[in-house]
């Protein structure tokens, strides 16, 4: 089975802090994604990466950056955390393959910014 | 803009009944669709997918139907069990992209014993 592991289930940080969310997958997938999930809004794509050191902006990249130094690890960075970034953050991965492939998700990090 | 949507936000069924969860999509260029299940406190779990060259696909106790004429997707769960209680949402591949998905907002399925 695909295993996507997010380093923290719950995290509480203060406004203005720099926050790192880590994600590791063990299936040698090329594609990795960061989403946030908010009630009534569904999943929204923040950033994705299709290869090491490659990144693309998603639908809501403002206030975030990402890092992909190794194939298995994709980090989301909140440069200066704000209260409106309180949310559930979900990491996913998928193989490149021929044609479409499903994304597989971790169990999320519930981040609170005080 | 075009988006994936759901007809019903909540669905309550009796244990043992069949459940049908619906999804409407508006992007006619989408050719790949996925159903996910999300239990409380967990991440979305892949259930089943279907490509646009198919009308129906079956898994274990689940069937996905695709009607491209009316841009409609449904998930049928046979003999629904209490463990099926979760939020279910569909996703489409955003106009043919091979890795970018657009997600619906979800339907909460509650199974009554």
Question: What would a concise description of this structure say?
Answer:
Chain A is mainly β. Chain A contains no helices and eleven strands.
Verbal overview:
- The complex is a heterodimer of chains A (114) and B (113).
- Chain A is mainly β and 114 residues long.
- Chain A is built from no helices and eleven strands.
- In chain A, strand 5 (42-49) and strand 6 form a beta hairpin.
- Chain A is globular.
- Chain A starts with a strand and ends with a strand.
- Chain B is mainly beta.
- Chain B has no helices and eleven strands.
- In chain B, the strands form two sheets. In chain B, strands 2, 4, 5, 9, 10 and 11 form a six-stranded mixed beta sheet that branches. In chain B, strands 1-3-8-7-6 form a five-stranded antiparallel beta sheet, with no helix packed on it.
- Mean pLDDT of chain B is 88; it is low at 1-8.
- Chains A and B meet through strand 5 and strand 10 of A and strand 4 and strand 5 of B.
**Helix fraction of chain B?**
under 10%
Low-confidence stretches of chain B: 1-8
Report helical residue fraction of chain A.
Answer: under 10%
Largest sheet composition of chain A: 7 strands, mixed
Distance between the termini of chain A: 36 Å
Write the element-wise H/E pattern of chain A from the N-terminal end onward: EEEEEEEEEEE
Sketch the major β-sheet of chain B: 6 strands, mixed
What's the multimeric state?
heterodimer
Average pLDDT score of chain B: 88
Gyration radius of chain A, in Å? 13 Å
Strand content of chain B: over 45%
Terminal CA distance of chain B reads 40 Å
- Report the count of strand segments of chain A: 11
| Count of distinct strands of chain B | 11
Classification by helices and strands of chain B: mainly beta
Largest interface chains and counts: A-B, 23 and 22 residues
Shape of chain B: globular
> H/E element string of chain B?
EEEEEEEEEEE
